[in-house]
Fold this sequence. Notes:
By secondary structure, the protein is of the alpha/beta class. The chain has helices at 43-52, 65-74, 84-101, 103-112, 131-155, 160-167, 171-179, 206-214, 220-228, and strands at 7-16, 21-28, 33-38, 58-61, 79-82. A five-stranded mixed sheet has the order 3-2-1-4-5. A hairpin with a 4-residue loop joins strand 1 (7-16) and strand 2. The radius of gyration is 25 Å and the shape is elongated. The relative contact order is 0.09.
Amino acid sequence: DTHGPRVLGVDDVALRRKQRRYGTLLIDLETHRPIDLLDDPTAEVFANWLRLHPGVEIIVRDRAGAYAEGGRQGAPDAIQVADRFHLSANAGAALDEVLRSRRRHIEYVVVSEPAEQPGPTPTAPLPPPSQTQQNLAIRRTRRSARWDEVRNRRAAGYSIQRIAREMGMHRRTVRRYLATPAPPRNHPSERPRPSGLSSPTLQPYVEYLQGRWQAGCTNVAQLQREVEAQGYQGSYSLLM
């Protein structure tokens, strides 16, 4: 039967995982049955299939650029929508990004909140993110955009060498982006450091605080308790 389904689901699938070879799985979403397996996850192959199987009215896909372009070429009148899984995955990734960017403030609230509260007490507003945190968030956003672009170009049939050349990246970096299921996080050396270390009050404890921070202890309340045990009498805000 050369007539396509009315509602078509499309997603990439690993054909040979060890060789990182991927194909395209097509599913009739009204009958919940697979109908075809394409051996190449490119826009051209998907568009050709749509031309040979007219009648598709709705294309349910992930956010890969290859399937979007293939749908526009092969079935220009079809409506393209994102499937529930990828909508949930994108929402989860966005929420995770927000929580990680505010992790220090969340940890402080959790640690400093008393076990029993006799009544409602006013809470001070959280301080705004520091310039260092803002810069890290910008770098994370740029890195995520490059990760998306690398995978979209690969799905569109670009070679690793071409992607690296056109995007000004090393081929090892391109391969690493293709091998990771999510955008890479910041390098450990990019952890934001306490912004008040230049204060004279903190000078006797700077070396200790920097060592603890690079060792992975970013809980400001915990660091405050440790330096107070060494004689620190300054405020919490100096450690932020």
